[in-house]
Amino acid sequence: MTRVASTSSLPTHANAAVIEAAYESWLQNADSVDPTWRAFFQGFTLGSNGASPSAALASGDTPAAATVPIIDSLKQSRVHHLINTYRAIGHFEAHLDPLANPPAPHPKLSLAHFRLSDDDLDTSFDIGTYLGGGQMTLRDILLALRTTYCGHIGVEYTHITDVDVRHWLQEKMESTRNLPDFSKAEKVRILRRVHKAELFERFLHTKYVGQKRFSLEGGETMVAAVDSIIEHCPHVGVEEVVMGMAHRGRLNILTSVMRKNFDVLFEQFSENYLPETVGGDGDVKYHLGYEAILDTAAGKPVEVRLAANPSHLEIVNPVVEGKARARQRIRGAMEDRNRVLPLLIHGDAAFAGQGVVAETLQFSQLPGYQTGGTLHFVINNQIGFTTEPRDSRSTRYCTDVAKMIEAPIFHVNGDDPEAVCMVAQLALAFRAKWARDVVIDMYCYRKHGHNETDEPAFTQPLLYRKIATHPQVSTVLTRKLIAEGTITEAQAEAIKAEYSAALEKNLEKAKASETAKSAKRAAATETKKFAGSTAVFQPDFHFKKVATSISSELIDRVVRGLATLPPGFKPNPKIKRFLDARVTAHHDGGPIDWGFGEALAFGSLVLENKPVRLSGQDCERGTFSHRHAVLHDMETNATYAPLQNLDPQQARFCVYNSLLSEAAVLGFDYGYSLDYPDMLCIWEAQFGDFANGAQVVIDQFLAAGESKWHRTSGLVLLLPHGYEGQGPEHSSARLERFLQLCAEDNIQVANITTPANFFHALRRQVLRDVQKPLIVMSPKSLLRHPAAVSKLTDFTAGGFQEIIDDAQFGVAASASVPTKAQRLIFCSGKVYYDLCDYRDKHKITTTAIVRIEQLYPLHKNAITKLADHYRGARLIWCQEESQNMGAWSYIAPLLSEIFGVLPVYAGRDAAASPAVGALALHRFEHAAMLQDAFAL
């Protein structure tokens, strides 16, 4: 560093013009000159009363400020490097763990790393854009940086490539030093929420010893944070919150935040409790959903919906995203998605370990799945069940997966509720501003084991020794508030006494209610039982015919729209022929193929004001190029979706190519179907066996959701299925797995063989008064099979047929005359056409072939009529799947019960793999199967 000690230290005459020019530039824009001159001019003008430096120097005057230090340019650049390094990795020194001391100094944040020293601490440096610019001593720079980035809050945001987003975050955090600035009333509210959460947990622990509740003890600050988020919602335009969370803290959220009556919850802890707030088989209390409209201090209510979810941890995430998007549509918030907030509360081990988390994060900016940003809150217990972070992840933080979508991540010490609540509000403001995901990682601890019957000291003795002596969050916060004069000790004790008394009162009320209800339960009506719950009621499943046929005029409108392209739009020539073929088929009354039948279903529904949503991998075109719901201009690649342009007044038709995911996308579409029941929601797998990757969603939500939570869904799954000789993969949609899940009329499983029947099945799904998920073993080769077509009249008359009798030998053909069929083959799906082809080629005249189009619920009455008609015929079941797969194990006992005789099995032997790999072997097996069907 050099000092300007006299006029001779600087050129005075020869360079006067240069000095004057630099001075003028500095006056216009201080950042336009070198930091050395910038410092000089700042000091000089203070000491020379505004005189021109060149004039003052030329006259020989040396104002006192002319001795201002001239900053070394190299050191100046190192200070700028230091500022940016703190922004990037200051979180390495943040005190995040409430059970540990502040971390040791990080070498990359030391002064020596920047080739600075303690001798520079009192030197003033230019700070660039930091804190609005100007100069600060290095000591003050470090203090401001460490307060902002190394206190109880550590922030990761420099991985965000959008400069505007980074600068917005910097300004918000650095201007406040990341220090909370709550009013007295707000601080007291935070303390009350922490006390309420703690006392609730302690109360349950003492009153219901040994019962699982997945305690929040150690992480009670989460309740204050969620309350703070809801309270802040009106300030950023949020009207509704859709929440998803696993077990830990769920009961506390229900009571402390969503204001579910304590006495209702206490009643559920009773060993004699019978569920009256869910339907069917019910579920454990920490799986149940709840809805409430909460008043806020801002005077605007916020609707909060907590989604029901099973024990599969993060699997509720995509369901919440789907529900939130549906709620945005219902509220008319498709443009301003900020009005409905998805809030997901995670566990640390699950956030790092569960793949569905990454899949759900990928929804963030996708057109068909985005929800205006999600607020993720991680309850970081720093342990899984018994597994420590070093064994459960390969990253420093459990939240590192969120960096892939450039979400800012706030790590915060859970023992500082004010810091957590401040970060929660900042995260909410970030989401409102940028419509992006944001993550809060609250470090805390788990006072008990994974559940209250577990002994954590078996595996973490040292950790739980620390936890045993650690003060409660309320104690830490109370000491702080008393020390700063916000409250007195007496006021703090009064808050505790108030909540303790309320809990005792509600426990007594619950006990009295249980006694009274036991006498009245038998007389309670269904409606009364479910009063105040989120249950959805519907009639029992039935086989009543639904009017699904449409008029010729409506078909004309659909076909006209399908075939009309915008002026100048140039489709691929093959697509042009595809559209022309549809026009010809319509004109000729058929044949209508599968894709055309599906388009007629979609088009007729949207023209009848029934919206349609179709999502899945490559479903715009269709895996087998049969759909072409979105057309591409050959020259411009502009897109056009005919089904979106049938009529200006039509309902919405949405079709989205999804991310390459099954679990998350199916979960999303299931969630959407829950909250938008008027829309036909469809998920299409690229191949049927891809549904394997979504088995948790299928098992826990589609198959059991109505029974457990009384939430109904009409979601349709299209799963391409059929043995075409292409090997073990993509042959089977695992029909047998879906049939094993069938009970209590929970889902529908269909293996449909004609375009018209598919058309009626889709329309029936939204036009009748019962909602059940529909699983369709969707065809592959039948998409273009010359026999798998329908006539136009099949769409203008009739309805869905669960059972299709043989046209030659059936009841309709021979009326009351006994059948001439000596053999009756039951089948389902594509194999029907193979059987017919074999029968025709071999001129077999005594065999009837009956198709079961809907395997579950099975229309037993219809089959019973067939049993009377075909009495005496040899009963065969034929399937192309292996004997231990397909429908055989399910259908055999049912047919035996109806016919009084066990059907003969004709098909492939049991196998470990769904199909053989060699085409020649496939053909051999196929031929043997057909021969057996007609010979056994």
Question: What is shown here, in short?
Answer:
The chain has 936 residues and is an alpha/beta fold.
What does this 3D model show about the protein?
With 936 residues, the protein is α/β, with parallel strands linked by helices. It is 40% helix and 12% strand. Strands 5-11-12-10-9-6-8-7 form an eight-stranded mixed β-sheet.
List the defining traits of the structure above:
33 helices; alpha/beta; 936 residues; 26 strands; 12% strand
User: What oligomeric assembly is this protein in?
Assistant: single chain
The helicity comes to 40-55%
Backbone structural class: alpha/beta
Proportion of beta-strand residues: 5-15%
**SS element count, helices:** 33
The side-by-side strand order for the widest beta sheet comes to 5-11-12-10-9-6-8-7
For the CA atoms, what is the radius of gyration? Answer: 35 Å
Quote the average pLDDT. 88
Detail the topology: elements first, then pairings.
Blueprint lengths: L1 E2 L12 H13 L6 H13 L5 H7 L9 E2 L2 H17 L34 E3 L8 E3 H12 L3 E4 L6 H14 L7 H24 L13 H12 L7 E6 L4 H8 L4 H7 L21 E5 L7 E5 L9 H15 L9 E8 H6 L1 H7 L13 E6 L8 H4 L16 E5 L3 H18 L3 E6 L17 H9 L3 H11 L5 H32 L5 H4 L22 H12 L9 H16 L5 H14 L4 E5 L14 E2 L6 E2 L12 E5 L5 H13 L4 E5 L10 H9 L1 H5 L6 E5 L14 H6 L7 E3 L4 H13 L6 E5 L14 H4 L6 E2 L6 H4 L8 E5 L3 H11 L5 E6 L1 E3 L3 H10 L4 E9 L5 H12 L4 E5 L10 H17 L1
Parallel strand pairs: 6-8, 6-9, 9-10, 10-12, 11-12, 13-16, 13-17, 17-18, 18-20, 19-20, 22-23, 22-25, 25-26
Antiparallel strand pairs: 1-2, 3-4, 5-11, 7-8, 14-15, 19-24, 21-23
Helix pairs in contact: 1-3, 4-5, 7-8, 7-9, 7-17, 7-18, 8-9, 8-15, 10-18, 11-23, 20-21, 20-22, 22-27, 23-24, 30-33
